[in-house]
Amino acid sequence: MGTKPAPAVVPKPKTFLRLLLRNRLAAIGLAFIVMWTIIAAIAPWIAPFDPYMTNTAVKLESPSGGHWLGTDNYGRDILSRVLYGARISIWTGLIAVSISFVIGVPLGGIAAYYGGRTGNIIMRVMDVLLAFPSLVLSMAIAASIGNGLTSAMIAVGIVGIPEFARLMYGQTVSLREKEYVEASRAVGVRDRVILFRHILPNALAPLLVQATLGMGFAILTASSLSFLGLGVKPPTAEWGAMISEGREYIISGQWWLVTFPGLAIATSILGFNLLGDGFRDVLDPRLRSGK
Fold first, then answer.
1. Burial readout 206-222 (b: 16 or more C-beta within 10 A, e: otherwise)
2. Can you tell me the distance from the alpha carbon of 138 to that of 234, in angstroms, rounded to the nearest whole number?
3. How far is 59 from 124, CA to CA, in rounded Å?
4. Quick one: pLDDT at residue 276?
5. What stretch of H or E contains 46?
6. Would you tell me the crossing angle of helices 78-114 and 149-175 to the nearest 10 degrees?
7. Which terminal Cβ of the chain has fewer Cβ within 10 Å, N or C?
8. Cis peptide before 7, with omega less than 30 degrees from 0?
9. Model pLDDT, residue 181
10. What is the pTM of this model?
11. What's the rounded Cα separation, in Å, for the pair 67 and 33?
């Protein structure tokens, strides 16, 4: 005879969305995310030019009716490249956070549930990863794997693993002594089932918040790697790479080369950070009851 899992703390979808939209900052963040997601999906249909088409006749042209956001040093349309860059950034964030979640959550759960030597080894490895600055560690990983988009996603994903592992560790420690977990052990339910059916659903709320905030971190770190030459390879349209290419022209007055991709990075990160804070407010019963 099995035991019934405890109810998850995540509200029903309609209630969740209603509570989320009441939070003005979260609604703004959601609007930014929806905007960039839609842009990423339909970029090939709304971009006014081929983002890789060069035209030296109009290179370094300031924003105008022909090129709304201007052109770069190769005559490529900045607006088209920003739109296509959304595809790279959103995709990179999703893959990186997925890697962090899929690896970090089980490691944290196993470390807390079993404890002992196994738990100590796992968490000490996480501490070692956290001892290095995130950007420095991601640079080292990306450089060791090789330049490219795949390397950047893997590097950013690995750097984010400790955050999910530590969060899941804390949640599992607080949940493993609950009555429904003890009852499951008593009737012989497998540890794997307890972890994924009882503990994980009740730890989803903080993990969801961390995943949302992690998206902003992943976009920023991946853009930083591209800026440093360790991310996407030229001439790929990517926000960090665009800023890297345009930084040499700031002094001479071509401000649009870095301003618009910089704004794209800023608004996307702001969107995920605001939405993550909104998720935290909605998913934490103590914060909801305090309003």
1. bbbbbbbbbbbbbbbbb
2. 20
3. 52
4. 92
5. helix 24-46
6. 40
7. N
8. no
9. 78
10. 0.89
11. 25
Per the listing, tokens 């503990």 go with 199
268 closest CA partner among 5, 30, 21, 20? 30
C-alpha distances out from residue 146 to 85, 119, 154, Å: 21, 32, 11
Question: Looking at domain 20-289, which CATH architecture does it have?
Answer: Orthogonal Bundle (1.10)
Q: Which residues contact 96 (CB under 8 A, 6 or more apart)?
A: 153, 156, 157, 160, 214, 218, 221, 222
| pLDDT tens track for 159-211 | 999 999 999 999 998 888 778 777 877 787 787 888 888 888 888 889 999 99
Q: What are the phi and psi torsion angles at 57 (to 5°)?
A: -70, -25
pLDDT of residue 4: 45
Q: How many angstroms separate the CA atoms of 286 and 205, rounded?
A: 13
CA separation (Å) from 209 to 38, 163, 265, 277?
22, 12, 20, 7
pLDDT at 128: 93
DSSP code at position 77? B
pLDDT at 110: 92
The CB density around residue 64, as the number of other CB atoms within 10 Å, is: 11
Both tokens of residue 250?
A: 């700031």
Q: Do residues 142 and 205 touch, judged by C-beta distance below 8 A?
A: no
First to last CA, the chain: 42
- Mapped onto helix, strand or coil, the DSSP state of residue 76 is coil
Q: What residues in the chain have per-residue pLDDT under 50?
A: 1-8, 289-291
Domain ranges of the chain: 20-289
